[in-house]
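We modelled the chain as a single entity of 106 amino acids. Its sequence is:
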Amino acid sequence: MTTPDRRYSHRYGLKVPLVFCAVQSLLKNGHSAKSINISSRGVYFFTRHPVFVGLPVHVLLRMPKRIAGTPATARVFTGRISHVESYDDPKESSGVGVEFFYWESP
């Protein structure tokens, strides 16, 4: 028996630099990361910064033309942490998935 894939859009294994922060924080004080995979509906990356499922976040990145269909431009996405893959060692990075709700120009 197979389980259905919960994803609704294709994920691309692209390394895109990004900055993320909690919604109530300023992006200029955000945390840098690099995507592991990205789609029009979300992004997955590693970070050592503590986050939790449900945390509302802003993510600043240049959405690649391959995904957006338009030339790569900087966008601020608002979304939420949808899952966190933590490890026992607190010095290790956690894998973080963010679901995008909408975006704006910075």
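As a brief sanity check on the tokenised model: The chain has a mean pLDDT of 90. The chain is about 5% helix and 50% strand.
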